[in-house]
Amino acid sequence: MEALGHKGYQKSILRDWAGAISVWDEAIKSYPKEKKFYNNRSRCYFLMNDFKRALADAEFMTTHFPDYSRGYFRHGEILASMGKYREAERCFRRVIELDNSCLDAVNELNEVQIQYLCSLGFTRYQAGNALAVAKDLEEAKTLLRDGAFPEDDGEIYESDEDTTVQVHPVQGHYDPLEDPDNPKKCCSIWVGNMKEKVSEDDLKKIFSKYGKVKSIKADFSKYFVFVNYIESDGASKAMRSLQGQDLAGNKGIKIRYPDRAMLGK
């Protein structure tokens, strides 16, 4: 079993998803009760954008291994990519029920809630504000529909400091939303793993080093900060310099561009 696992891992490192799937097929045939093989195969299908097969493996895991938190995480990840945000939300909630120390699930839960509200026509700025004060997603939706949170005031924060940008390569599989080259020209970044509170003034000072900042939204109860730059170059520089670094007492921050991002001009 270990030999098959190592072989599949090596295929994945080389991004040979089809080759890895062949290994996981063999592994599952030999060890049909080993849940991690289904998870690994689902991941490969997912990275190939074969959501149908990825989802089939994820659903198999949540049905046959109901206490396997990674199965629910994979299921939620796939559903979110398919735009099924409410279903994904339930999956990430289940992950947290099984493992309340899984910060990634907390972050993904917040993200799919924001994506759902954005799909209703609201901005990330509005969605983040509503979620910060509402007791649940339905209340946030009601607040937004009642006009409780207008668009941001457009205030711009800028730093005069010169910044030397260090490049930190993306680890693991390729994800354009974590690519510092910013192929989608996103003007915004989502910063996760923010467990320790940082003042708004300090956040402005930190992030304005990389470009003109239009607005910042922080929700430390959900461990994230959302930074909206004027130009996509600012978002790219921030990611290059800060990805995986310690920031104001927060260890190993995670930075992504949002799925529904503001496009650079």
TrEMBL record:
InterPro entries: Nucleotide-bd_a/b_plait_sf, RBD_domain_sf, RRM_dom, TPR-like_helical_dom_sf, TPR_rpt. GO terms for molecular function: RNA binding. Residues 187-260 form the RRM domain. TPR repeats lie at residues 69-102. Keywords: RNA-binding, TPR repeat. It holds the Pfam family TPR_16. The keyword Cell membrane does not apply. SUPFAM superfamilies: RNA-binding domain, RBD, TPR-like. PANTHER family: SHOCK PROTEIN 70 (HSP70)-INTERACTING PROTEIN, PUTATIVE-RELATED (PTHR47678:SF4), TETRATRICOPEPTIDE REPEAT PROTEIN 31 (PTHR47678). This is RRM domain-containing protein. It comes from Megalurothrips usitatus (bean blossom thrips).
